[in-house]
Structure formats: C-alpha cells, structure tokens
Design brief:
With 63 residues, the protein is α+β, with helices and mostly antiparallel strands. Helices cover 35% and strands 16% of the residues. A three-stranded antiparallel β-sheet has the order 2-1-3. It binds zinc ion.
Length: 63
C-alpha cells in the first residue's frame, strides 16, 4: 500500500481524520478509533466478519 496511515502522531494538535472504504462501497470517516469501531461494526453486521484493528487501519487513508 502506497499510503500509510500513521496513528498517534499529532498533526495540528489533534487526531487526524482517516477514511476507510469497504469492498462493498461502505465508507467511514473519522479518527483512528472511530473508523476502527465503525468498520468493525459494519464488518460484523453486514458481512458477518471480524475485522481486527490492524486490518481496518491497513485500509485507512488520510481524509
Ligand atoms: Zn462492507
């Protein structure tokens, strides 16, 4: 992956906003914790899959 999302580093003093898109087209946007939580919910509810934090962040790009 060309774009790496770095977590936990302050940029303009706040949490950076990430975008994560699912294969089905579903997209979430928010801080690292938010996108991880929402994508995990989505994966479980819609695809009956379990996504790890690493898997979610691996797909994240900067907003
Ligand atoms: Zn999906």
């Amino acid at each position: 992956m060309l774009i790496s999302a770095r977590m936990g580093e302050s940029e303009s003093g706040g949490a950076r906003i990430l975008v994560v898109r699912c294969d089905c087209g579903f997209e979430v946007r928010g801080t690292g914790d938010e996108v991880v939580e929402r994508m995990q919910d989505h994966a479980r509810n819609v695809h009956n899959m379990t996504a790890t934090r690493e898997q979610v962040l691996d797909r994240a790009t900067s907003a």
